[in-house]
Write a structure and sequence with these properties.
heterodimer; A: alpha+beta; Immunoglobulin-like; MetI-like fold; B: MetI-like fold; two-stranded antiparallel ribbon; 18 helices; about 0% strand; flat; disordered C terminus; MetI-like (chain A); transmembrane (chain A); cell membrane (chain A); membrane (chain A)
Chain lengths: ~425, ~400
């Protein structure tokens, strides 16, 4: 009697299914790794390199070719001139080689010792160039009829030039300077503090406002759909449009908000909302709350509408007051969605760049970590330091997402 | 606490608060509409409001007298609303509105309250009604005001705005002249081309995103393979990577390969930012579809791909619509990448075009007109398809 054992490993069907799955996922995997994973690795790489904005264009030899003298008839003499230059002012280019194909009908009178002519192909070995190197090569030639017939243009075939320059992005020199620079001094901690303030208050504010708005709309009345649509406007409109209208609204000279406050006697002189130190940060946070309360409101409303009404009827029978119903019945039901929203919004607010960049440009004490990436990389032209800040952001993100997944798994079995 | 729950105290306090809210609202509305000086008076608001609140306890008929009194007091100069020099009509309208809305609101807020000790239930109902009324006014105001300023500024000119920043009244006799900044944007600032580029890029992004996300989402939702759980998590993780972190190497890479400053580069990069979220939204929906229908198709001899094409996709059209809308919105509103990668004005998207208007040489109304041009299409699309949008937004990230 044979002992029957259950099959082990994956059967052919299961294997086929897995193959199909990977096939369907392949395009996404490819695209995502190309645009997300690769850049992330690049950020890590760059953060350890002393790279400035100017280094993005690696040093290269440059050549311009022209014909001097105006040859009219066959036998006239002319000069072909190559003007050479190193595009970089301080980097060395080694082993520069110039190659060119001459048009027919040119005969060399005297060749530069660096150059050899083989038929129509010219090759010049130009050696190593210092930064800021400039030179000229003049080659005297006599022109033949064939050259004049062809139009007499040496530019028809472009001269090619190549050399080896050390590219700072790919060489093996590393430095910790970027990290010491960004962690140096009090600036980092003030940036970090601003980020935390913005993130915590922006997130909590948006949640509280969202909860309030959801409670307003969690009843059916005429115009409920309209109001719901209206309250989503801040989230749906392009950030650039609403950011500029906020700037205009709160302008210290011609802003309506200031005019209104002056007229109502709340303040005696106009307030520079986006230009003063603690106020600018508060305004930016308020903008964040204003722009993202619709998102929390949408999620909370969806959850509210799925709560069973039986429970409330039972509570009514027991004589519970409205606040009691809210606190003891609704809140526990909403706690799950609120905490998930908190984590999600916390991460997204932490990552937010556009809003602050458009409102204040990171001035007046509103520079968060993300704005700092831009400032370091483009305003100070130090790409390496920008990448180092980006690495710091990414590490924070990893910590947050650890909590997120730990919590989410419990919350919805993801 | 028990003192608060006396009808008179509740009525007076809520009345004072409500009257002040209404006075502020009316003052702000009229200021924005006429540009004249309207302001609420805290003292008179509290006094009159408390009176109205107490009167409201005795039913709406008793309220009519005090309501007229508030209106008349306002005209004489002792009302909740203080008016500087304003047109007569606006002034009368303002006082009437304050008195009317204050009385109407209070009669609703204090509907069940009586001039005696209140039960906890009645008291809390009244407070909640007050908060509800306040909430509607508050949220509507904060949402509407920035958009109102945006639209009205685009219809005026710089000199008028500097003179009185509150005066948004329009000179209708100008007719089409009101739309001057729009004409100038389209004729001199090339906004027609920006609009087209934005539309083109967004639509292309939607199609590319769907082409990548549909098969991926199906695989994650339905097929069993090793690493499925890890995969669906890493999608979310990628969704959380900040764009600015990626923008830096993308900028470097594009600079080196010559893709910077090309529409091709933009079209390549936008879908990748939207694929993770689209994939996540779609797989949630696919999971909710009954798998029996698909299995029936498989039994009848369709291949998996045919099942997706003939059964799953037609069933998930609503989800596809909302995902497309959401992706379109992201691509249309995208600013950071367009700002970093595009320098050539002939290739600008709309958001990039608007940011180029933000200089001291371009008048403010042009900036706002540009903002309106960018906002109107997405709003129209959104209001028209609001049902899909709300569903799509919620369906994606969090269940239940």
């Amino acid at each position: 009697m044979t002992v029957s054992t259950p099959p082990t490993g994956a059967g052919p069907l299961a294997r086929r299914e897995a193959r199909l799955a990977w096939g369907l996922l392949a395009p996404t995997l490819l695209a995502v790794s190309l645009v997300v994973i690769l850049p992330l690795l690049a950020v890590f790489w760059i953060s350890f390199k002393p790279v400035g904005l100017a280094d993005l264009r690696p040093p290269a030899p440059v050549v311009r070719e022209d014909l001097r003298g105006k040859p009219q008839t066959a036998g006239d003499e002319a000069t072909i001139r190559y003007r050479l230059r190193n595009s970089s002012q301080d980097k060395v280019i080694s082993g520069v080689v110039l190659t060119d194909t001459w048009p027919e009908g040119l005969a060399p009178v005297a060749l530069d010792p660096r150059c050899t002519l083989n038929g129509e192909a010219l090759r010049c070995d130009l050696g190593d160039w210092e930064g800021g190197f400039r030179d000229e090569i003049r080659l005297d030639v006599t022109v033949g009829q064939a050259f004049l017939d062809a139009g007499g243009d040496v530019d028809d075939t472009e001269a090619a030039i190549a050399g080896n320059a050390e590219n700072i992005l790919t060489n093996a020199s590393f430095t910790l300077e970027n990290f010491t620079r960004i962690f140096d001094g009090a600036q980092f901690w003030s940036v970090f503090g601003v980020t935390i303030f913005y993130t915590v208050f922006g997130t909590v504010g948006a949640l509280v406002m969202g909860l309030f708005a959801a409670m307003l709309l969690n009843r059916s009345f005429r115009g409920q759909g309209f109001l719901r649509g209206l309250y989503l406007f801040p989230y749906v409109a392009p950030v650039i449009a609403v950011a500029f209208s906020w700037i205009l609204l709160f302008d210290p000279f011609s802003g309506s908000a200031n005019a209104l406050l002056l007229q109502m006697g709340v303040t005696q002189q106009s307030i520079n909302f986006f230009g003063e130190r603690p106020l600018a940060l508060i305004m930016v946070t308020l903008f964040e709350i204003w722009r993202y309360f619709p998102l929390s409101f949408l999620f909370i409303l969806a959850r509210m509408q799925s709560i069973d009404t039986d429970m409330y009827e039972a509570a009514d029978m027991d004589g519970a007051s409205p606040f009691q119903k809210f606190w003891y019945l609704s809140m526990p039901q909403l706690l799950g969605i609120l905490s998930v929203l908190f984590l999600l919004r916390f991460i997204w607010t932490f990552n937010k760049f556009d809003d602050i960049f458009l409102l204040t440009g990171g001035n007046a004490g509103t520079r968060t970590l993300t704005v700092n990436v831009y400032e370091q990389a483009f305003a100070v032209s130090n790409i390496g330091a920008g990448a180092a800040v980006a690495v710091v952001i990414f590490s924070c993100l990893l910590v947050f997402s650890f909590f997120f997944f730990k919590f989410m798994s419990k919350e919805e079995g993801l | 606490m028990s003192l608060m729950r006396n009808g008179y105290v509740t009525g007076a306090v809520l009345g004072a608060l409500w009257c002040f809210v209404i006075a502020v609202t009316v003052a702000v509305c009229l200021s924005f509409a006429t540009g004249a000086a309207f302001r609420p008076s805290i003292g008179w608001s509290v006094l009159w409001g408390a009176g109205l609140g107490v009167a409201a306890l005795r039913g709406w008929r008793v309220l009519l007298g005090p309501m007229v009194a508030v209106c008349v007091a306002g005209l004489v100069g002792f009302g909740p609303l203080v008016v500087g020099d304003a047109p007569m009509l606006a002034e009368v309208l303002g006082h009437a509105a304050v008195a009317g809305f204050a009385a109407l609101g209070l009669s609703m807020i204090l509907e069940e309250a009586e001039p005696a000790a209140l039960t906890r239930h009645v008291y809390e109902e009244a407070v909640i009604r007050f908060l509800t009324g306040f909430g509607y006014i508050f949220f509507t105001a904060i949402v509407v005001i920035p958009f109102y300023v945006m639209v009205m500024t685009s219809l005026k000119n710089q000199a008028e705005l500097l003179q009185n920043p509150l005066d948004f009244s329009l000179d209708l006799s100008k007719g089409a002249g009101l739309l001057r900044s729009y004409f100038e944007l389209f004729s001199q600032f090339n906004f027609g081309s920006y609009l087209w580029t934005s539309f083109f890029v967004s639509v292309l992004t939607v199609f590319i995103t769907l082409a990548f996300a549909i098969p991926g989402a199906y695989a994650v939702a339905r097929l069993r393979f090793k690493g499925r759980a890890a995969f669906s998590r890493s999608i979310l993780l990628i969704y959380m990577v900040p764009m600015i972190v990626l923008a830096l190497p993308i900028y470097i890479g594009f600079s080196m390969t010559g893709l910077r400053n090309t529409i091709l580069g933009i079209v390549m990069i936008y879908p990748v930012t939207t694929i993770p979220v689209a994939l996540y939204m779609l797989q949630g929906y696919f999971r909710g579809l009954p798998s029996e229908v698909e299995e029936a198709g498989l039994m009848d001899g369709l291949s998996r791909l045919a099942v997706i094409w003939k059964i799953t996709l037609p069933l998930s059209l609503p989800a596809l619509a909302s995902v497309s809308l959401y992706v379109f919105m992201i691509a249309w509103n995208e600013f950071l990448l367009a700002f970093m990668l595009l320098d050539d004005p002939s290739k600008f998207t709309l958001t990039r075009g608007i940011s180029s208007l933000n200089s001291s040489e371009v008048p403010r109304q042009h900036l706002m007109a540009g903002s309106v041009i960018a906002t109107v299409p997405i709003m129209a699309l959104f209001l028209g398809l609001e049902r899909f949008m709300t569903k799509g937004l919620t369906a994606g990230s969090v269940k239940g």
